[in-house]
Amino acid sequence: MRKYYAFLLFLSFFFQNLCAKQITLEEAFGLANRFFASVTSDRGSNTRTTSSVLTLAYTSVIPADSKDTRAVSSLGLPTYYVFNADNNRGFVIVAADDRARSILAYSLTGSFGLENQPLQVRQWLSGYDIEIARLSEVSSVPEIAGMVSPYAGDITTRTMTTSVVEPLLGDIVWNQDTPFNNECPFDKNYSMTAPVGCVATAAAQIMKYYNYPLKGKGTKTYTCKILNKRLSVDFSNTTYDWVNMLSDYNGKYSEAQAKAAAILSYHVGVSCNMDYSVEGSGATAKDIATGLKNYFSYDNNLEYIERTHFNESDWSDFLKAELNEKRPILYFGEGPSGGHAFVCDGYDVNGFFHFNWGWGGISNGYYQISALEPQDLGIGSGMGAYNHYQAILIGIQPPNESSTHLARVQLNGTFNMQETETAREGTNKATIGFFNYGLQSFTGEVILGLYKDETLLTVLSSTAVTKLSPLGGGTKGFTFDEFSIPSSIENGTYRLLVAQKENGVSNYTIMLTPVNYPNYHIVEVTDNKVSYVKPEFEPLLSMVKKPEIISTKLYKGRKATFRVTVKNDGEEFYSYMGILLQKKSLDEEKERQYVGMFPTRIPKGATRTFEYSTDAIEVSPGDYDVVVVCDVDNAWSNRWWDAIGPNEF
């Protein structure tokens, strides 16, 4: 029976650490200055002509009346400091405990302010408070949410061995409103012009980076569903005025300069079937990929990749490899109130990636890829926090003869074996399911292979696949029947993997699974038998502290917010997590309410803090257990099963 896992709280942290040291304001100021100097020096064309002057913007302190019993010795002490650079040239957040990694976050543009902070930013910052405050109560340092800096203590001790890609878009900071939407449809219901749409703005900024193409190709006509308007563009009759397109329209601009950006922005929107609306214009990754190729003559081998098949480390490496080729990445992510498209265009030595959000420069800066939580939000942003359902378009460039296409056919989960053990000469069956996540249809071969390390030893079984539809539209199930391990295979340990090869390609590519599933079975070959073992591949989640009720009391019909901090000592978790309110009763049918239950990602070895909110408590008054629940199977389904082992307040 499927079930959710309820985290049990054990108060076992009552020992003293004599080695901890509080970072003073003066020390933090020194760290901030040295760090800012290091990241703003040797930056090519972006080198600053004068040094930035840093001033203290905010000091976070655990209040003396805090109910957090796990941070008692930190009450009244700073947890982190925020310093702003002059002239709106960025900020840096410095931890106030020397066992935490020094630099928590930074930006080279904008400034930090607490006014009108959105929910996800308060959640992000409160996570720092909780984690750093707890350091005074434990003898070992946990992985702190959002800390990706590779050094601790003095900033000057680090070694800069990692390559860097400066923000490729440079000073390109386009937006969705005037003048960019001057050519977009008018919404008579609101007496306003619809915004450009985040997908079109992101793509248009990348096109401005290349200043390509000179002319469009073909024509396009479609009906915008929300406005019920028929829209048409003759791309082939349009010459794009790159000379008059400014990088930044926040200042003065001429009519010709406004028109140049507006025409491109609208044409990109039409190319991707933009559904225009004053409340927010939207389009899909598939449609913008098609639009770039069909109407603007971009390279045919651009690819769509979903993060679901990569853990955090591999995903970072994947992004860096693309950015090293000097190609901006069109990035997609979703938050609690919707999705957004934006541009990833650089990275630094500390593991932060640079993002251009398409809001005229607002919140552009460096972020951890699992904490895409811009501080200030722009048009069509929703609540921000774009950490879920992340995907990218890569290979966006003018036609390149050296570009290649790699089929993205992946497993939808771990394949199943009919038998876990057979005689040495016995046969077995393996059942698989796979999707085509790529942008092009797939015709080729799918095999079941026996591997030693990374080497394919033998193909045990295979099947031909014809025209598997792209972008998840093509799915197929198949059973490899009656295969056996050849007698030529020596006794030992091997891996059983599924691989694919597109027609015309020489080598097989191992098929991936979503990050929460293993994509192989371990094969043990002896003189008498063959064993097939599915590897253990599970997260190991635990509560760092008991759940908090932000409002301290719960009332029926009123809003409520809960805060939880969870550590993962196992494989990466990526599935549903939330709060269960369950009435304390001996009755079999207990009154209950779920809060949150949205997709949550916790990488291996990381600690994350989350907030779950509801607009109204629906259960009747009484005594309730407040339980943190999650899909312990990490399988993205059946998320409403009962929890077990609730934590009591």
UniProtKB/TrEMBL annotation:
GO: which molecular function terms? cysteine-type peptidase activity
Any idea which UniProt keywords this protein has?
Answer: Hydrolase, Protease, Signal, Thiol protease
Q: What is the active site of this protein? A: 198, 340
Name all Spi protease inhibitor domain ranges.
20-131
The Gene Ontology biological process annotation of the record reads: proteolysis
Signal peptide limits: 1-20
Q: Which family does it belong to?
A: Belongs to the peptidase C10 family.
Can you name this protein? Secretion protein Por
Protein species of origin: Bacteroides salyersiae
